Every structure is written in structure tokens, then in C-alpha cells.
Amino acid sequence: MIHQSSSKSTNQAKDVSDGVSSVPEPRKNTRVRKAKSFGYDFQHYIVEGTRNETICQHQYCFNIEGDPKTFREAMASREVHFWKEAIQDEIDFIMYNNTWVLSDLPLGCKASRSKWILKRKMKVDGTIDKYKARLVIQGFRKKEGISIFDTYALVARISTIILLLALAAIHNLMIHQMDVKNAFLDGDMDEEIYLKQPKSFVTPGNEHTVCKLRKSLYSLKQAPKQWHQKFDDVILSTGFAINQDDKCI
């Protein structure tokens, strides 16, 4: 009798376990979510403007050339004067900032190439605000652990930002927002990286030398990390302290 009761209880437990395992798992959505894009501000302006404004803006947009993809295209466009001015401004800042020094390329090292990224910054009404030029290094050719090492960059948590905004509202404090011009060009380099002299800006008498980077350039994988480190050093030197729970604060 004892043997039969234990066998019966075992069968009941097995039935219960079978019932639990047969419960279907909830389906997971495999659709890839994409952020909604409502277009540029001037596109909204065209859609929401009056009829006369819409006609004028359509005519203006059709007459605008696309952003040049290369330095040669910029020099051959109708807006070559504006592109030259934007490129010269970028080069002037790079030289003023002592971003690189000319040196011979050491044996066993390779010099990276650079590329100009040219964009128009548009106003809300669709007219051109300014012409922007950025000299970027082809950092994708660099291999992590060989020519580059640390590439991380801390980012403030959104919950911390919300908390700071709430504290400012509670205590009636002013919030100041600022943008650092050419921020990534201010980070000091830890590794030795060499760059070929940009076309049309080769120093006479030093045609066979390369640029040894002293500071970061756009598109370098370690540029965000170097900028964050430089920003921390400057802020800490003025008496501020780092929050230990969120080191971006």
C-alpha cells in the first residue's frame, strides 16, 4: 500500500509538471524599430507655410546644389568661394590650436589619410545659414590594440539629467547650455598617430614630411575619450568635484 501511494503521488507530480511546461511562452516582437524622422526644419516650413511661401521655397530648394562629397567637387561648384572660406577657417583653427607638428615618418609606421566633410547648415525657412567644413582622419584604418587603445567615452545618464532639471526647477535656478566649438580638436593625444598633409595645404619645402598629431581630429576613435579627459582636467582645476555616482556630473 505504501508503494502504491508513493507511485500515485509521483504520477500526480509528473502531471502537474507537464502542465506547467506546456504553457506557451509569450511571443517576442522581432520587428526592428526605427526612429521616426519628420525631415528638416525647412521641409516643415514648406509644408506648413502659406501658398506663396511654399512656391518660393520650392523654387529655392530646386536651385540648391547637393553638398559636395569631395574637395574636388567643392572647388568645381558654383559656391566655390563659400567652400574655400569654410575650409580656410577650419585650417586656420587647426594651425592655431597646434593640432599637429610636421615630422619625418618613423620606420614601420603608416600615415593615415584625411578627407573633407562639407555640409550646408540650413535655417528654418530653407535658406543657407552657413557653410561648414571638417577635416576628418580616416580612423577606420586604425586597429584597436595596435595604434589605438582606450576608445571609451563616458556619457551622462538620462535619469541624472532629469534629476538636475528637477532640482533646478525646485530651487528656481538658472540653467545655462553651451556648445564648445571644435570640441574634439582640443583633446591631447596619448598615442603616436601620423597623418599625410591635406591636399592643397602641403607646406612648401616640407613636401615629404607628415603631420604628427598632438591633439585629436574628427573621426578618430579615441577622440571622444580624449575630449572627455581634457574637459575633466579643466573643470577640476577650477574647483569643481566629480559626482561618484555619475562621473559625467
Please specify the SSE layout and strand pairing.
Layout: H1 2-21, H2 41-48, H3 51-63, H4 71-76, H5 80-96, E1 100-103, E2 114-122, E3 128-137, H6 158-170, E4 194-195, E5 210-213, H7 223-237
Antiparallel strand pairs: 1-5, 2-3, 4-5
Helix pairs in contact: 2-3
Q: Order the strands across the largest sheet as they lie in space.
A: 1-5-4
Structural class by secondary-structure content: alpha+beta
Count of all domains: 1
How far the N terminus sits from the C terminus, by CA atoms, comes to 72 Å
Q: Choose one word for the global shape.
A: extended
Cα-based radius of gyration, to the nearest Å: 29 Å
Helix-residue proportion: 25-40%
Please describe the biggest sheet, giving its number of strands, its sense, and whether it closes into a barrel. Answer: 3 strands, antiparallel
- How many E-type strands? 5
Overall mean confidence score, pLDDT: 78
Low-confidence stretches: 1-7
Q: Tell me which oligomeric state these chains represent.
A: single chain
Proportion of residues in extended strands:
5-15%
Order of helices and strands: HHHHHEEEHEEH
- Give the count of helical stretches: 7
Protein name: Reverse transcriptase Ty1/copia-type domain-containing protein
Biased composition (Polar residues): 1-14
Organism: Lactuca sativa (Garden lettuce)
Region (Disordered): 1-31
